[in-house]
Amino acid sequence: MLSSNIEIAMKVTKTKLKISTYNMQFSQDRKTLLQNINYLANKNVDIFCLQEVTRYPKQPFVINEIIRLLGTNWKAVVNIGPEKSPEGMGNAILWNNNKLFFKGKKNILLPKREKLALHEWLFAKMTGGNTTPWQRRTVVVDLRIDNIPIRVINAHLDHIGGIKHRQKQFLSILESLKKLKSCTKEIICGDFNTIDLLNSGHEIQELTKILCRNNYIDASNKIAWTADLRNMDFANNTLAKKFIENFDIHIKRKLDFIWVKKLNINKCQKLDLDGSDHCPIFAELTL
């Protein structure tokens, strides 16, 4: 009886952690994004991993606005470029400092393509997108919760270059992690841009092989898709947007993931919220 009571007590006192990953679509619709992040914080999300964090001239930095909204107990690290435009977009990790405590940070620059392939350039022109490669980034933060170290890696891989280029970028992240002090419990999440237009499933399978070899588990494996081409930013190219809307074209893909190592997965959910062409997802984990 005594041993059973001890086991029940141990189960009750296990620490829970909630983490969300969210591509902010160049931080454009900041009013809606702030509402969504506040909504997630009210659902007790402890860590936010944000991609496409962008600064603009004559506008407050969106991360400062988020912290002002959530409260001074929230802290952040960023890895962004110097440009005050989408070209300088990067990543941010925010955490509730009442629960998690900062131990260290590392910024990683991912391998960059020199130019777009012809078909990528044509697609960018058709949709009003960027026709030159941008620097992709990853930010890593070491935290401590209940005196337990945990490492969070927020990645944003390229939408150009195909599977081989994205694999090269991801392997460069793993190589950078090997140079850091070992941490048993890790979370890798973000926008992996597993576009897979033919919907073959090959890219996610190859990504899964790499991560499983490194002892990660996909907490988000039951989420079917996180982004729809219909909702992407077409800039001023209204012709492409009208074509997709008139023909009711949907290309839904799972681009966003939460991978964990040495953590128990309680649940992982997608939230269908406005404000971005990606849906945020969050996972509840137990240490």
Structure description:
By secondary structure, the protein is an alpha+beta fold. Helices cover 29% and strands 30% of the residues. It has helices spanning 2-13, 30-42, 62-70, 118-127, 162-178, 202-213, 238-246; strands at 16-23, 47-53, 74-79, 90-96, 101-109, 137-145, 148-156, 186-191, 217-218, 227-228, 252-253, 256-261, 264-270, 281-286. A six-stranded mixed β-sheet has the order 3-4-2-1-14-13, covered by helices on one side. Strands 5-6-7-8-12-9 form a six-stranded mixed β-sheet, covered by helices on one side. The chain has a two-stranded antiparallel ribbon with strand order 10-11. Helix 2 packs parallel to helix 3 (62-70).
- Biggest sheet, open or closed, and with what strands and sense? 6 strands, mixed
Strand order of the largest sheet: 3-4-2-1-14-13
Unreliable stretches: 6-11
Return the string of H and E elements: HEHEHEEEHEEHEHEEHEEEE
Morphology: globular
Q: How many distinct helices? A: 7
- Mean pLDDT, rounded to whole units? 89
- Roughly what percent helix? 25-40%
- What is the count of β-strands? 14
Distance between the termini: 26 Å
Broad structural category: alpha+beta
- How large is the radius of gyration? 19 Å
Strand content: 25-35%
